Amino acid sequence: MGEATSFVKQLAVKIKNDDVFDLAAQLAYYFLLSIFPLIIFMMTLLPYLPITKDDLLNLISQFAPGDSMDIIETNLEQVLSRNGTLLSFGIIATIWSASNGLNAIIKALNKAYEVEETRSFIVARAMSVVLTLGMIAVVVIALLLPVFGEQIGVFLFSQFNLSDEFLSVWRALRFLVSPVILFIVFLALYWVAPNKKITCVSAIPGALFASIGWVLVSLGFSFYVGNFGNYSATYGGIGAIIVLMIWFYLTGIIIIIGGIVNAIFTSRKKKPC
């Protein structure tokens, strides 16, 4: 009990000293700049994959508040209608813009570990791009698994003469795809992004916190917006933008606190018993 209390106190002090809420506001701004290039780039992959635009938007809508989905879909339709190829301004420029959010996260995690960014600008930025591409690959896998999950289960069922219960369990497990994928994304982010060598295991506590925390906060905020917070009635046309920014702000808080959780665990392991 005393250890848990000490951890919570240390976490509260770190949150205050690291200006978490100010950093989260910065992340929200960069997330806003990144989301449309990111989605646009992912849209360019759809012709080569057995998934549709609706599949991608449905994945986002599982967590995004209703008003924010409206503005995402509306602006995406406008971009698609103006530029059918989507890559007229260059695939590199698209990925570069989409990596702004990851670059901001790297800086926030470095502050959580109290380390300076000693990597060159090119290396740090290249890491942001690689993490962005990795995140896109993971999201694509998350979209493909439900598509092919049934076929894979039937194949295993027929090849290995498995019981009917196996097929039922396999179908049920497909509902865990999104949370597991989310955990993998956060785990990779907390493991690779900071300018500090840590083990993959050391990144697990923060990844668990961020995965569970982000899902709960997103669903809770979405419920609040849908039932109580009528931002469109209060703020008019910019209501959807405000909802989107608040969601990004909450996301930034969760991500940074997840990094702080890992930093505290790492520092405690180094202390002598």
Number of strands: 0
What form results from the Cα inertia axes? globular
What does the largest sheet look like? none
The H-and-E topology, N to C, reads as HHHHHHHHHHHH
Provide the low-confidence segments as ranges: none
Overall mean pLDDT: 78
Number of domains: 1
Describe this protein's structure.
It is found in: Cell membrane. InterPro entries: Virul_fac_BrkB (IPR017039). This protein is mainly alpha-helical and 273 residues long. It has one domain (2-270). 79% of the residues lie in helices and 0% in strands. The protein contains 12 helices and no strands. It has helices spanning 2-17, 20-45, 53-61, 66-82, 91-98, 100-112, 121-159, 164-173, 177-192, 204-227, 231-235, 239-270. Helix 7 (121-159) packs antiparallel against helix 8 and helix 7 runs antiparallel to helix 9. The longest helix has 39 residues, at 121-159.
Entry keywords:
273 residues; mainly alpha; Virul_fac_BrkB
Outline:
By secondary structure, the chain is an all-alpha fold. The protein has helices at 2-17, 20-45, 53-61, 66-82, 91-98, 100-112, 121-159, 164-173, 177-192, 204-227, 231-235, 239-270.
